[in-house]
Design a protein that fits this description.
It contains eleven helices and two strands; from the N terminus they run αααααααααββαα. By secondary structure, the chain is an all-alpha fold. A two-stranded antiparallel ribbon has the order 1-2. The longest helix is centred in the N-terminal third of the chain and has 33 residues, at 45-77. The relative contact order is 0.07.
Length: 271
């Protein structure tokens, strides 16, 4: 536990806290500049205040999921490092997956404070940073063209489809709405399907059959909790689609995690 004491030391808090403070100051500067720009453009002050209030309100619930990620990782990586990672450009799903994969790669048997070493933490921290920097690096080279594409209304295919829809509307014919997902959306969806499939397969793989009787070679808790989490997310999606409440998306991940964690506590007594 000596390594965990160092990871929770004042030096780590100083380094990580300074970075987070810098990012917070930048956010405040941009918020002030955006507000002033809105006033200069003649946007109603009342409307801007309502947008600020709504944004702040809907940022609380997604933030719960981030807090859960910090708590989950702090047991093995200390509090400052997960706090910094998930406060700057980190993502909850990314940080936990990469940290777990890196911990297994260094031979620590997964994320555990009892097996964590200085070398293991260095490897995990380096991998968590290295894998996520490419968004910033690529923006240096293609950020301008990407912004230009956004300002022009998307790709040429999307623009053509939009013009065709306008022509149909003017002629009185059926309006054709065509929405094509970009490569980034498809790749991200495929990646998460692969991750989920891999984890589910690892849970199902603990089921063994002996003379027609199926038993768990390991613990059935992981599989049970993953099923509860999936059902919770399905319920949130059903509510969103049924009631057309887009705001449900703001806390569907955090809500599913809380429900899954609660089920783990309740079902844990049965293991």
């Amino acid at each position: 536990m000596e390594i965990l004491a160092k990871l929770n030391g004042a030096f780590m808090y100083l380094i990580c806290g300074a970075i987070i403070l810098l990012v917070a100051v930048i956010c405040v500067i941009f918020a002030v500049r955006a507000y002033r720009a809105g006033k200069a453009m003649g946007i109603d002050t009342g409307k801007m205040k309502r947008v600020i209030t709504a944004s702040a309100t809907f940022s609380i619930l997604p933030g719960i999921g981030i807090l859960l990620g910090v708590i989950a990782l702090s047991g093995s990586l200390g509090t400052p490092w997960p706090w910094r990672r998930l406060s700057v450009i980190g993502a909850l799903h990314y940080e936990t997956q990469v940290a777990e994969a890196a911990a297994e790669a260094v031979g620590g048997g997964g994320l555990s404070a009892s097996t964590m070493t200085g070398e293991g933490f260095t490897t995990i921290a380096l991998l968590m940073c290295f894998c996520i920097i490419w968004g910033m690096v690529l923006m240096i080279f293609n950020g301008k063209s990407y912004v230009t594409r956004l300002m022009s209304g998307g790709s040429k295919k999307d623009a053509a489809a939009h013009k065709a829809g306008e022509a149909d509307a003017k002629s009185g014919g059926p309006v054709k709405k065509k929405s094509t997902a970009g490569f980034g959306d498809i790749a991200m969806t495929a990646m998460f399907i692969g991750l989920v499939s891999a984890y589910i397969a690892s849970y199902v793989g603990t089921i063994v059959s002996s003379e027609g009787v199926f038993t768990f070679k390991g613990s059935w808790l992981s599989l049970a909790v993953s099923i509860v989490a999936a059902l919770a997310m399905a319920a949130f999606l059903y509510i969103k689609n049924k009631t057309k409440a887009e705001w449900v998306d703001s806390f569907s991940v955090a809500g599913s995690m809380l429900i899954a964690m609660a089920s783990a506590i309740l079902l844990g007594g049965l293991v």
